[in-house]
Specification:
The protein has 60 residues and is mainly alpha-helical. It has one domain. Helix 1 runs antiparallel to helix 2. The longest helix has 30 residues. The radius of gyration is 14 Å and the shape is elongated.
Amino acid sequence: MGELRLAASEGCEAEAMRGRKVKKAAAKSEEEASEADLQTAKKQVEAADAAENKKKQVQM
């Protein structure tokens, strides 16, 4: 079961990285590229938080 949660978390992170690559490629400036990086980092943190919350719920 832990492997399933880990796979879901990794899937979310992979999706965030793909989004980052697309946004960076489309960025017209360094500022836009930096914004894409920040959004990616935020999504990765959200995915990790969600995985941790699910882990806590399963342990209860």
